[in-house]
Amino acid sequence: MPTVSMTVNGKSVSAEVEPRTLLVQYLREHLGLTGTHVGCDTSQCGACVVHVDGESAKSCTMLAMQAEGSDVSTIEGLADGDTLHPMQEAFRENHGLQCGFCTPGMVMSAVDLVRTNADPSEQEVREWLEGNLCRCTGYHNIVKSILAGAKAMQG
Amino acid sequence: MTDTGIGASVRRVEDKRFLTGRGNYTDDIDQHGQAYAWMLRSPHAHARLNNVDTAAAASAPGVIAIFTGADMAADEVGGLPCGWQIHNKDGSPMNEPAHPPLAVDKVRHVGDQVAVVIAETKAQARDAAELIAVDYDVLPAAIDMNAALAGASAVHDDVPDNMCFDWEIGDKDATETAFSGAAHVISIDVVNNRLIPNAMEPRAAIAHHDSSTGHYTLHTTTQNPHVIRLLMGAFVLQIPEHKLRIVSHDVGGGFGSKISHYAEEAILTWASAKVTQPIKWVAERSESFMTDAHGRDHETHAELAMDADGNFTGLRVATKANIGAYLSTFGSSVPTYLYATLMAGVYTTPAIYCEVKTVFTNTVPVDAYRGAGRPECTYLLERLVNKAARETGIDPVEIRRKNMIQADQFPYQTPVALQYDVGDYPTAFNTALQAADYEGFAQRRAESESNGKQRGIGISTYIEACGIAPSAVAGALGARAGLYESAQVRVHPTGSVTVYTGTHSHGQGHETTFAQLVSESFGIPADQVEVSHGDTGEVQFGMGTYGSRSLAVGGPAILKACNKVIDKAKKIAAHILEASEADIEFTDGVFRVSGTDREMAFGEVSLAAYVPHNYPIEEIEPGLDENAFYDPLNFSFPAGCHICEVEVDPDTGVIDIANFTAVDDVGRVVNPMIVEGQVHGGVAQGIGQALLEGCVYDDAGQLLTGSYMDYTMPRADDLPNLNVGTQSVMGASNPLEVKGVGEVGAIGSPPAVINAILDALAPLGVDDISMPATPSKVWQAIQNA
After folding, report:
1. Among the residues of B468-540, which ranges form H helices?
2. Is the pLDDT of residue B742 over 90?
């Protein structure tokens, strides 16, 4: 089996994997980073969104081998110790989550939105989320959270 | 005094672990040495199962074992049971054909389980499953309900006409009389579209059997772990409770789809005793589409009788409800007692008769989905009322106002079994009209028209019965178990508290809301309280979470246990303070001898309960740990009014929801932030049903909407911001005065949306549209008008 190496949440990791191993499987099953979720099998739901070299990516839609040498960050690496990232804090403050299953993907996606658009409008947030499904919140409070999180990230 | 009690928007305790990726969902759990299961599923909707040849698969790499229905039958494994018995019009019980966990003689829907492959890795199990050779004799499929009733093909050989039951409620003669004297009769045919629940977390399970002790442990994605223990242990696998533990930690949404006892739970648990390793199974989303219980799927013809003044005098309803291939756990209750008992709605209709024919088809079983029966009823009623307004020329507001039960008419006995306890429908109605600026609509419509758009406004009122369930009533209606709830409140020596509840949180935030109840009761901060749920090894008993029952049934159980704790703590305080128990007051977390400054804090009393030097052990048992069970007096009856305003582009059929207003009476609100969130989510699912979602099978029973590329889930840019509020009359069925909020959004919203669209399109001559009202359907309706 081939060896894959990358940096995940600031740590160098390396493992032998079957070539067909998806990045999300590598994160969950090899590294035990179970915060990244799998909600579908067609790359639609976005529960698996992580950052690869700083950009959001659906980890169910790339092979672990494709992340060779990359810098990957997951929801587990977002907070600063016990202090939540401003986007995480905004979701908590604005009740932007209910069952929590889509949440890691939502938060990682939202952080990437703010990276590319520091002051998004409500409509831009809604359109950005086309690749992230939530069944609990009706998105109302997710949108509110992301708008608040974007402000806080600027502050 | 605490600011984390009832009424505070306390931020959720749950959130930090979910936000940092430290949730503990079933698929996040791995057990040492676990194997993986893959379900071989039927590609056919209906076929005779001749031979399942597993020889080649058994020798594939990594394969540990393969089991088929014959193996389970040889072990005399029971069928999956149904929890609610319905009787036919003639008094005979419903047809309950066998539901083997792994198919035996026939497969009855695409996705039916044929074999389970257990291997060292998931990939190996899946690869090996492809080597299983199944000899099917494909049979004609019964998909359409009318064809099924006409005997197209018998889903179950012992039910040749596919009729599960033919049921009725109400006074048929009185209703006929009402119609014979009616000045107007309004009739309507509606389809309540079949929905696929799609909780974001796919179902999953891990089973482990310890052969040294005989213990089984099943981690599973369920809304009701004790119900699974009861059903699977007693009816399917004959495992006594003390040897069977069901664990359901964090669950990623349910919406009813995780109530049912599913075949995979029984298959894994049974198989775990056949192999020596724990077995894990996680559904792929495509499996969820074809095996999670679906929702809705009714066809209804209804007629409303009115007198010359526009008063409703009679309602006659005939519904065909699709039950799918098998009777699921609560499948039979949904189109009956959760549906037709609400046919009065918020109106004074004096005579009502409803008959329901429930039909087996070669489709996934249909069971509870958010609202379960009540959205189907509300959609029918509110479409019918709007049609009545249109045909009689009475304003849609006035026709509702005229027929509405008034605040001084409670308790109100409906003609369809239920007695509404309290409510004030006109006030909530007026509040909603104001919040939606109903008066200003004409101007907004004119503005839209000047932009080439059609604008419409749609109203829906609703009532639901929830807080399931008053056990005696439920039993009289056919429930095979009482539906009370338990709580255990354990005060630890230094005054912190663990609450054990038999309800289950899968997004509702019970860890926060229930902590608030204890905070209020004991006068301690909510962060001193931890809520435990979802493990039959920790929680004594419970019936889980569905039917908006957690706070309405589980909450009072907690309150009752808290009161027992306070009663006992007063005795302890009285002893230590050397006072009479009758003189001990408890306020704001302090036990005080009345009229004195002698007092003990809550934590001092709890410490004295466990580790005292001076304790009357002969008189008072040490410890501060109380159990309580609660059975509600009646269902609770949330009600309200939803108003939707749409703008339709007549050139494209695209619908834009310009405003959505929901005013709901949910009784006492414990956490306003969470209540609003529940309404948001329910409304989103209702808008999804009205505009986007619909399960489609082809005539052969192939599921055409089997992925997120085919089944339209609401996305963020499909939905508007929602204007939600509460206008509550305190509940009367329980001491917390709560009513329930989980389902109201999904119940009230679909007819509001469709009525708005029809209002927008009425000037173009469109008088009917079915759900989901997609742009192509709307455009076509405009062309056909």
Report:
1. 471-476, 510-522
2. yes
